[in-house]
Amino acid sequence: MHYKIYILVTCMCAALTVSAQVGVNTTNPNTDLDVNGFTIIEKKLYLEDPGESTQIRGSQLLIQRTDNSIVQYNLDVSKYGPINYAELVLKATNKSGVEDFDTKIPIDPYNVTLQGYYFLDNNNNGTSVITQSTNGDDKIEGFQAYAYKGSTTWHIKVFVNNSIFRVAGNDDIKVDIYINLIIFRKGLLAKEMNAIEVDLDEEVKGTAALPAGF
């Protein structure tokens, strides 16, 4: 009889030990592992079963600094976000548009895309800006607006081939160009892929090869 009681007590103690909570710098842990302070991961950190988040709002990213410490990524104090938005306003531009504007955003850490643009009359903020052909006919080409890589920084071009900006009764105007820029931080969320080049050989249909990793 005494032998059976000893076995029962031993099993109960083992169960309590397995389910115990561990605290670091705290005597009242609130979960299986409760760390009160900074944590440095020297090697690798494995999350075998992170589960699904039931609360997205207020969530934070963890990032590794150059000293290999893991810190919380705080947008409020960071110089940049993983995805950044900026409105670029080019005031009183030439009626031919913008041929080459240097944003000074470096190409190594960032990717830049144009997500939209519109034009206003610099004289009165009017929206009646149109284009007029410079070839002496009524053929107007479509707008071209894009960001492209310079030697070290991103550049902007906004123009219409063989045309100028104007309003009714006035060919000599200055235009304000409003551009929505999306600036992606490389290495955090955005990964730059190799260019996808497809020779259609004058066909109207085509298929691209699947990019590596997809």
From TrEMBL:
<protein>
    <recommendedName>
        <fullName>Secreted protein</fullName>
    </recommendedName>
</protein>
<feature type="signal peptide">
    <location>
        <begin position="1"/>
        <end position="20"/>
    </location>
</feature>
<keyword id="KW-0732">Signal</keyword>
